[in-house]
Amino acid sequence: EVQLQASGGGEVQAGGSLRLSCTASGFAFDNYAIGWFRQIPGKEREGVSCMTTVNGNTYYGDSVKGRFTMSSDNAKNAAYLQMDNLKPEDTAVYFCTASPPFYYGGVYCTLKEHLQKDWGQGTLVTVSS
């Protein structure tokens, strides 16, 4: 059974940093795509970032480019989201996802919500002014 668990959320002042973790089991983590999505209160769920674990290629949504960074430790079946210069509008529940990667002359991930295969429980991030 595929299991995903996001952790590391909390409360932080605007301009601060948090590091989220996604621990996984039940699939070939070292050749997969891991994603981060967030649910902002009153808004649609938004794709934040994704990466392909086999080569470390990453993709970021426009709202977080230059502030958030993904990484992974494949030996630990874990992915991370380093969030810097946090803003109040980053307040959301953050979800970890897992999907088979796409192959188009390379290995890629996607932030299309309907193509995410499995979802974790989520962790709450609150950014105050």
Based on CA atoms alone, the radius of gyration comes out at 14 Å
Measured by DSSP, the beta-strand proportion falls in over 45%
* Overall mean pLDDT: 96
The coarse silhouette is globular
Helical residue percent?
under 10%
Q: N- to C-terminal separation?
A: 40 Å
Order of helices and strands: EEEEEEEEEEEEE
Largest sheet: 7 strands, mixed
- Work out the helix count: 0
Helix/strand/pairing category: mainly beta
Given as residue ranges, the uncertain stretches (5+ residues, pLDDT < 50) are: none
Instruction: State the total count of DSSP E strands.
Output: 13
Structural write-up:
- With 129 residues, the protein is mostly beta strands.
- Helix content is 0%, strand content 50%.
- The strands form 3 sheets. Strands 2, 4, 5, 6, 9, 12 and 13 form a 7-stranded mixed β-sheet that branches.
- The protein is globular.
Write the layout of secondary structure elements.
Elements: E1 3-7, E2 11-13, E3 18-25, E4 33-39, E5 46-52, E6 58-60, E7 68-73, E8 78-83, E9 92-99, E10 102-103, E11 107-108, E12 118-119, E13 123-128
Parallel strand pairs: 2-13
Antiparallel strand pairs: 1-3, 3-8, 4-5, 4-9, 5-6, 7-8, 9-12, 9-13, 10-11
